[in-house]
């Protein structure tokens, strides 16, 4: 019984550590995604186009950035889940 409680405590610790690391990574990577996208499109200033009211650029930029953030979130979630499964075994 005591071994089960200890294993559950380790699992919670690993999950919390992984979640904290994942949140930090997500924030840092999310802040860099627009800069990477700006380097991929050097002839277009997305910020200026969005301010001018160019809805096509705003929609495209928003979709690309949000898709990248969702992709990074899935990768981080898989890592946290892997750590949790490893802790339970």
Describe this structure in words.
This protein has 89 residues and is an all-alpha fold. The chain has one domain (18-88). 90% of the residues lie in helices and 0% in strands. It has 3 helices and no strands. The protein has helices at residues 2-40, 46-52, 55-88. The protein starts with a helix and ends with a helix. The mean pLDDT is 83.
Chart the SSEs and their pairings.
Layout (H helix, E strand, L loop, with lengths): L1 H39 L5 H7 L2 H34 L1
**How many domains comprise the coordinates?**
1
For the termini, the CA-CA separation is 15 Å
Q: What general outline do the C-alpha atoms trace?
A: rod-shaped
Order of helices and strands: HHH
The number of E-state strands comes to: 0
Determine Rg (CA atoms, Å).
19 Å
- Count every helix, treating DSSP H or I runs of 4 or more residues as helices: 3
Largest sheet: none
* Unreliably modeled segments: none
Q: In terms of structural class, how would the helical and strand content be classed?
A: mainly alpha
Q: Please indicate the percent range of residues in DSSP E strands (runs of 2 or more).
A: under 5%
Taking all residues together, what is the mean pLDDT?
Answer: 83
Helix content: over 70%
């Amino acid at each position: 019984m005591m071994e089960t409680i200890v294993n559950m405590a380790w699992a919670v610790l690993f999950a919390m550590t992984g979640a904290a690391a994942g949140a930090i990574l997500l924030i840092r990577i999310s802040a860099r995604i627009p800069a990477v996208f700006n380097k991929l499109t050097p002839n277009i200033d997305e910020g200026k186009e969005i301010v001018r009211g160019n809805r096509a650029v705003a929609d495209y930029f928003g979709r690309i950035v949000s898709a990248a953030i969702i992709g990074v979130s899935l990768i981080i979630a898989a890592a946290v889940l892997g750590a949790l499964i490893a802790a339970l075994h």
